[in-house]
Amino acid sequence: MDHALSMRAQVAAFTPLRVPWPHGAQLIAPNVEVVAKPDFDETDWAFWNLRPREQKEVPNREHWLTAVAGYDPRDPEGTLDKLAHRVRWATVGLQLWCPIGWDGITLLCESTQDGRHRVERVFFDEPYGGTNWSRIVNHGNLDPAELRILVEGTVSALESGKPRVVNPFQFLEIGLQTAANHPRAAALLWIAGLDGLLAAESRDLFGARLTRLLGEDAFVLPEDLAGRRPKLRVSDVAGKIFEWRGLIAHGKALLEKYTRPIPFDLGGPHELSHLPLAQWTEDLLVVESSLFVLIAALKKVIAEGKLGVMADVRRWKGWLDERPA
Questions:
Q1: 289 vs 207: CA distance, rounded Å
Q2: Alpha-carbon span 295 to 316, nearest angstrom
Q3: Any alpha helices (H) in 98-182, and if so which ranges?
Q4: Which whole-number Å values give the CA distances from 55 to 132, 193, 276, in the listed order?
Q5: What is the pLDDT along the chain (325 residues), one digit of tens a residue?
Q6: CB of 83 within 8 A of CB of 67?
Q7: How many CA atoms lie within 13 A of 5 on its CB side?
Q8: Backbone dihedral region of 55: left (phi > 0), alpha (psi from -120 to 50 degrees) or beta?
Q9: CA distances to 158, 170, 264, 312 from 164, in Å
Q10: What pTM does this model have?
Q11: What does the alpha-carbon distance between residue 196 and residue 294 come to, in Å, rounded to a whole number?
Q12: Residues ≥6 apart with Cβ < 8 Å to 62
């Protein structure tokens, strides 16, 4: 690391947001903020192995997530590593609020006295992709106050080190990292996250616990940019998710019902140019549903303050089974 870093008071990690941020700069978790485009003291982005498209797009993103810490001369590399992890975990929490994806690029910087940021290291993680529906979710009308709750809960879960708490969040993340090239593999990972949450060995128990957790009438997919929300409820997909997982995981051919087009009520004009109605099959429906149902389940656990209960499988099963249907 540059010896000049030892003369500075602060170091910071920055990662860009992929979408326009309509809510202004704000604190979204302890030591994690959304900020306007930082002033980076860097002109040669190719030096940091950014690809040509990334060199053009990433430094010009309008809003960024950042975490800041005082420089620790006893462990300078460790300080930057911790900041990078914190920003990454906050990005996982951001996907619970709205699965907008992530470039997987984190800039680790020293903050100079004139307010500029000198790049010291660049972390490259696997980017987050998503599903067809996640790319058209309307994030502009979401509540930023909910974002802070979700990011704090996610960071707390991932810092806990408790496998039953950590695993569903990590399955969400790995699925997002897989989705661009292997959507069915991503769905399997998201369903594995649901399996870890629900601890259910049968289709009936899986469905019962999922509907108790979320409510059988809860909608699966959020509104799109045109204000459409498919009339699809948790009770409609719970059994299909469990059955589809079993077929794929055990190398069995998908049943014909999963591959043929299905009637689908979009709650508005039926034809979408980017996702024609003819493409909607039970297979696609499960892929889409597995992501948004896992997100809804993790949001519910955080909102109700049950991360500690989830760490104890006996208490957790009892809590799930005692919830009113």
A1: 14
A2: 18
A3: 144-160, 163-178
A4: 26, 35, 34
A5: 444 444 456 899 999 999 888 888 889 888 899 999 999 999 899 999 999 999 999 999 999 999 998 877 777 678 889 999 999 999 999 999 999 999 999 999 988 777 889 999 999 999 999 998 998 888 888 888 899 999 999 999 999 999 999 999 999 999 999 999 999 999 999 999 999 999 998 999 999 999 999 998 899 999 888 777 888 899 999 999 999 998 888 877 777 788 887 776 666 555 555 555 557 788 889 999 999 999 999 999 999 999 999 999 999 999 999 877 6
A6: yes
A7: 24
A8: alpha
A9: 10, 11, 35, 8
A10: 0.91
A11: 10
A12: 17, 20, 21, 36, 37
Q: What is the DSSP string of 171-221?
A: HHHHHHHHTTT-HHHHHHHHHHHHHHHH---SHHHHHHHHHHHH-TT-BSS
What lies within 8 Å, CB to CB, of 234 at 6+ separation is 210, 211, 214, 215, 216, 217, 218, 219, 220, 293, 296
User: Which amino acid would we find at residue 21?
Assistant: W
Q: What is the DSSP string of 279-309?
A: G-BHHHHHHHHHHHHHHHHHHHHHHTT-HHH
Amino acid at position 44, single letter: D
Task: Round to whole Å and give the CA distance between 23 and 47.
Answer: 33
Q: Two tokens at 266?
A: 């979009």
CB 41 within 8 A of CB 118: yes
